[in-house]
Amino acid sequence: MLGAFTRDIRLLCGVAVLALTAGCQYPGGAPSSGAGAEPRFTTAESRLALLDRITWGVSASSAHAIEASGAERYIEQQLRPIPAALPPPVQAQIDGMTISQRSLDELLFEVEKRRRGALAIQEPDDRRAAQRAYQQELTRLGREAATRSVLRAVYSPNQLHEQMTWFWMNHFNVFQFKGNVRAMVGDYEENAIRPHALGRFRTLLGATARHPAMLRYLDNVQNAANRINENYARELMELHTLGADGGYTQEDVQELARVLTGVGFVLTPNVPKVRPDRQADYVRQGAFEFNPNRHDYGDKMFLGQIVKGAGLTELDEVLDRLARHPSTARFISRKLAVYFASDDPPAELVERMARTFESSDGDIAATLRVLLRSPEFAASLGRKFKDPVHYVLSALRFAYDEKPIANAALALLWLNRMGQGLYGRETPDGYPLTQASWSSPGQMTARFEVARAIAAGQGALLGDEAISAKSTDVPQLSGSAHSGVVRKTLSPSTLTALEQARSAAEWNVYFLSSPEFMHR
Fold it and tell me: What range defines the domain where residue 265 resides?
């Protein structure tokens, strides 16, 4: 059946290529903003455009929510979310995960015991089998974390919070396949990133700086007095706070690395022997550890100011400086603007955001409010090209909003296929946020493959029980509650292609492959 409409897919490919440079516009999708301006988002089409940007994609439930509350109230609810329930089958999946039932230190102690046990086995074949089992357990834990992330992104009503959780996971990137990070990444997302995603940047920064996943990924566990490792110190300034042009020097990197000596984590419940005069400085919080035996207690000169040698309190002092530095305000504001507005955001918008970031002591929601209320944001709606994560999640939200996914492994497979697997960026810079990285012919081909998979049937995603339900195998996207409004946002060429569809599956493929659906 799919082969019968190859010609139309080629047509859509051509339209999509044109849309890569032209962008897409929603009718009424660029309302005015600012003091004295007329009310914004006054049409259903403009409200869908807003949803496409501040959520992981339009769904029936989000369309209903914004129509019920109004756009401005909806934005405020998203900026300051309250806990909201997931569908019971989705929550049950999450509750059944090992990462939901075990603390990080328990998991780390257990997997480390398995690793050491495998190494102690004398017989080579048995040792290799035990080492494979150890790696498989790490992979299982990492897959649980990624599955939980996808389920929340698709079904949580607090969509802006979900987007910001992904944004900060990408900003404070860790690569799950380095060492035992797979055992840590679920807790990293759950306890270091998620609670602070719309809170204060300083709190978020401190949570990442003390988490074993970050300390392992950027090698700070190897950082000790007289044996300095600068990896984390450099990325903490270049990628996490000040930016590459933020005004720091190589001497600042070296001094920050000295501050970070002794900051690490533990893999066993054993407490190290600490020299008597430093025992009061020893800190253990869960798996996090500050070991004064490894710390450089000399004074440091960091960003032009003295840091007195005092142990772990030095870390809080330098994080305060970094979080409240003007370069950090500009760097974070611009990155948020790139993510939510434009690949090259106007300097005036970034400056307004940065002023709010500074005056609010790094309040992320307050900084985002400036962005979301700006005329630049409103004018950008429908023009931002979706990266693979946005594409896959928006397709799942459109198609499966009211039908809980039982097999998220397919979504993870698609993301890996398109080069944006969760926790899969090996370098600390995180995945790029601009169109140029995600609009190659190979990327577009992969998207069409995903569109076919979602369009053709639900069985694999919904689980074995749904496979026998032949009458519901194909999502009925053309008959969704908000499809009438969506049609008003489509170009004549896309509408012409949709009119040629001879089945629900064909309509689905055409729509999910359209240039409008490629943008947000």
Answer: 88-155+174-238+247-323
Report if residue 210 sits inside a domain.
yes
Q: What is the pLDDT of residues 304-316, one digit of tens each?
A: 999 999 999 999 9
Burial class (CB in 10 A: 0-12, 13-18, 19+), 203: middle
The stretches of 196-305 forming alpha helices (DSSP H) are 201-209, 212-217, 231-238, 250-259
**Ramachandran area for residue 361 (φ above 0: left; ψ -120 to 50: alpha; else beta):** left
Identity of the residue numbered 348: E
CB atoms within 10 A of CB 73: 12
Residues 39 and 139: their CA atoms lie apart, in Å, by 50
DSSP state of 175: -
Tell the burial category of 21 from Cβ atoms under 10 Å away from its Cβ (0-12, 13-18, 19+). exposed
pLDDT computed for residue 457 by the predictor: 67
Q: How far apart are CA 279 and CA 294, in angstroms?
A: 12
Q: Report if residue 128 sits inside a domain.
A: yes
Q: According to the model, what pLDDT value does residue 18 have?
A: 42
- The answer to whether residue 134 is domain-embedded is yes
Q: What is the tally of structural domains in the chain?
A: 1
* Interatomic CA distance for residues 226 and 236, integer angstroms: 21
Run of H or E residues at 9: helix 6-22
pLDDT digits (tens, 9 = 90+) for 352-376: 999 999 999 999 999 999 999 999 9
Domain contains 395: no
* Verdict on whether the full-model pTM lies above 0.85: yes
